[in-house]
Request: fold
Amino acid sequence: MTFHEMWADLAPIGRHADSGGYRRYAWTGADADCRAWFRAQAEARGLAYETDRNGNQWAWLGDPLAGDAVVTGSHLDSVPDGGAFDGPLGVVSSFAALDELRARGVEFTRPLAITNFGDEEGARFGLACVGSRLAAGQLTKEKAYALRDADGISLPEAMAAAGYDPEAIGADPERLARIGAFVELHVEQGRALDLSGDAVGVASSIWPHGRWRYDFAGEANHAGTTRIADRRDPMLPYAETVLAARREAELAGAVATFGKIAVEPNGVNAIPSLVRGWLDARAADEVTLDQVIGGVRQAALAHAERHGVELAVTRESFTPVVEFQHALRDELTRILGEKTPVLGTGAGHDAGILSASVPTAMLFVRNPTGISHSPAEHAAEDDCTAGVLALADVLEGLACR
Ligand code: GLV
Ligand code: MN
Ligand code: MN
Reply:
């Protein structure tokens, strides 16, 4: 299959008819269809297919046990109503780059693998990069077992229902030790390449980022009969905290977003008993991020107290700053040309998680609007082709003669 045929084949899976966005959540039917698609692509190319103990998918050319493998790939899951490119562009481009290398008639000197890392977005269980975090030992089995989705289904239950063995999950140092280099191609989630006029760039770093859960607990009561003075309405400090997050982020040159909220009992004519909001915050460095997080928390505590509301703040995840390995990054720019732009990003990636264990690099493909995590996410056809050729050049430079 060509890039276009693969793209068209994958396109309907998990696409929501009304929004046009993707709902490919971990261990659901749409995820299973994406996984079947990956396996079919691997087998159609005669690659050795396997899933690892954490449910990540691998397609091998050459001996998986030989070591010093060059691995490329990304993820196929999505955020709620995500775009078509975040994740799939990297996986589809990996298969297309392998086809390109075979057409070039190169001889592989190192094993090559294509991967699909599971549950990158964390849309279902709230924690991003579960597959790579488990493999890298950055998420313990015990903590993974405690993850639950909005319906109360635990991660091991969901894995088992999808036909995977949750007993097996955990750190996978032997597998990671076989990787000599991991290169993830990804659609850019900003406009740096659009502004510089380049189709492809190389990643320098990922901002430190994390997710914090804010539980504002008040008192449920009648929306029509409860005097204003008698209310303990958690929506009010929540709303003020959203504004505080925006203010703190602006002051620090960072970003902070409340993008998900749960309200109990969630009735139009009831004062809420609980408002739960999730804060996603990111900054160029950890000192700045700490400052933003501290500022939001202080403001939230003050607002909660003023409204007679209890507040509990829980850090659900944190990913420190990632500086991609300079030697591999320089190798990529040498292969692609010294003028290739090198750019940082505020988005998290499996490559960032793996960078603590293996030499890792990323390629970004231009996104003309910068929009991502939305159905409007896009990359032009010519730029996708440029991405495939750049990835093929990189893989050839690293793994071929
Ligand atoms: C993943 O895309 C993230 O940056 O949250
Ligand atoms: Mn994403
Ligand atoms: Mn992604």
About this structure: Residues 209-319 form a domain with the Alpha-Beta Plaits fold (CATH 3.30.70.360). The radius of gyration is 22 Å.
